[in-house]
Amino acid sequence: MTFEAIVVDPRREPVPAGWAALARAAGLPATWDADVLAALAWCERHRRLLAVVADAGGAPCALFAARHVAPALRRGYGGSRLPGLLECHLPPAITQPGHAFHPDLDAAGRAEAVRVFERAAARRLGARAAGVVYRQVGADDLPAFRGLGRLVRPALPEAVVDNVWDGFDGYLRHLPRRDRRNLQRILRLVDRSPDVAAAVEDRLDGAEAARLLHNVQVRHSTARRAPAPFPAVYHDLLGGRPGVRYFTYRSPAGALLAYGLLVDDGRTMSCQGWGALDGADGGRDNLYFDHFLRQIAHLIEQRRGRLILGKTMTELKERFGARNVPLYGAAALRGAR
Prior knowledge:
- The protein is α+β, with helices and mostly antiparallel strands and about 325 residues long.
- The chain has helices at about 20-25, 35-40, 105-125, 170-175, 175-190, 205-220, 230-240, 285-300, 315-320; strands at about 5-10, 45-55, 60-70, 85-90, 100, 130-140, 150-160, 195-200, 245-250, 255-265, 270-275, 305-310, 325-335.
């Protein structure tokens, strides 16, 4: 099996045409669109690389999105020569995998595509890369990242709701009585509130969406330094694309109070972020819980297979009927390829 990888810096080089072709073949969501990723590359602190692995006939078989995370420079230390790690994930968050394979590629082909990518990335970065780290590897893809000298470790699982119902009422009936009553009460409170209007929108103003999301990030951050906000251009470019929906809550005057971003690839729906005002700034109670219920209702209505609720707060998400799906991190250190 002969593969070749093309690795580009999307700030300076065009993304190969094979990227869009494989994204269509694999049914990847709009978050994988090359122009979205190229725009985000200008907003990242670390250098972003995109790679297409193709077979001998030029047909694309694997995609990789990674950032080169180098140690912080220290004055007089020669930090620019210190090696870093190539971290494979989909921007702007680190909770989405940065690898995708053609659905017809077998296990041996996937493993070879991974190694061809790693060799090409090593040639591109030279001594500046000590290895490659892959985030959010699912169990089905895990064999491609195993091997001599390679590390695999469990990561935080993600909460997933499997769609096995004909309607939303059936979903509610399957929940434990206490959870069902609490969630139904939340739905009634939001539906009957004269101060909140719930809707589903195709797009939001990027700056407004980024501001509300950053507000939530800061509120829950345990780091000394506030997390970097998501770029406004992300929402500006993503909005209006197929499968992108914003579950919004607005005041009677139209002010955005909160929203949840949902991305649909035709099979799976994924929650991609929650932004909201604090109560002191006009935010409302119960909206976070309500938006999950509305997204589950949307899942059932659209007859998709599952909804990924994301990581953390697993006990809370289990109240919505979610199960925990194992994920892994994998690493290939320099010399193991």
